Amino acid sequence: MANVGGGFAPATLPRDVYEQWKGRVMAEAVRIYEVGPRDGLQNEPGVIPVASKIALIDLLARSGLRDIEVGSFVSPKWVPQMADTDAVLAGMAAARDVSFAVLVPNMRGWEAFAAARRPDVRYEVAVFISASEGFSQSNLNCSVAESVARLAPVVAAALDADVPVRGYVSCVTNCPFDGPIAPDQVASAVARLQEIAPMQVSLGDTIGKGTPARVAAMLEAVKDAVPATQLAGHFHDTGGQALANIEVALDHGVRIFDSAVGGLGGCPYAPGAPGNVATEAVLELMARRGFETGVDRDVIAQAAEMARGMR
Ligand code: HMG
Ligand code: MG
User: Fold this and answer.
1) Ligand 1 contact via 176 beta carbon (within 6 Å)
2) Are the C-beta atoms of 213 and 183 separated by less than 8 Å?
3) Domain spanning 26-308: which superfamily?
4) Domain extents for the chain?
């Protein structure tokens, strides 16, 4: 008799048993990219002590997550909540299997990161542009072309220092200032980042107005510029559509999703950007759809409680 759990040739198994067998031994992996300590806490109105941020990051690092965004080296006048990122980097525990990401908008930010980084920690630098001019002006005080020119030397410096780089494109369906964004505009923004260097690009539905149909159209256009394996989905949940949008992205071959524990988050320069989709909700969806994440949902539940307590 065939051993369903063991990997014998399944040709003689009934279809439903075969599907179950296939699901068990060949569950596809999805990578959850935790952005709560950055995209979540950057938007909290109160001051969150460094020790609380570190406690959250250290707990998340014990959950099986492989990527955690821990802060940003942006202007403290623009985002005061992230002004202590150097202290966070100094105090957090190193974790062998985790890469810790920081947002860097310009060379000034790169230099601050370079001074704060530790030799015992694995980092990633995230650079960010917008698909729309309105949000670029609001968030970075410059045009899209200027932001690309500013981040090119950051990417070069990071790669030279063996620090991997990730890119974000914001406003992939709607901009709070310019309205609906055409899929081709998003594809051009993604291509602009790839011209600097090949990198993973996270597609930000910054104000969470994307619908499954709009996300599908956007992904069709973007996939002409970059393979789906190099893309991540970054959905804010204003319209309650984030999980449906993630499912559409899964159907388009995307296997990396950003989320924030406890549904923390938003962007202070995007009116109407509420919480990111909650990590615990994405984990539940992935379990239901039969994808492996390697993340311990009990630890994430504890972290979600800790995150909610910071509000
Ligand atoms: P600016 O005012 O045009 O810059 O801001 P500047 O070059 O004229 O400098 C002004 C002052 O800021 C100077 O100081 C600089 O030294 C200082 P002063 O002489 O006045 O004392 N400065 C810096 N200080 C620390 N770190 C730096 C830095 N750069 C300049 N790196 C700037 C331009 C880019 C700095 C500003 O617009 C900024 O910091 N923007 C960041 C806004 C931000 O962090 N937004 C949230 C993250 S993006 C997001 O959430 C979206 C995402 O989640 C995806 C999605 O959802 O779509 C990623
Ligand atoms: Mg965001």
Assistant:
1) no
2) no
3) Aldolase class I (3.20.20.70)
4) 26-308
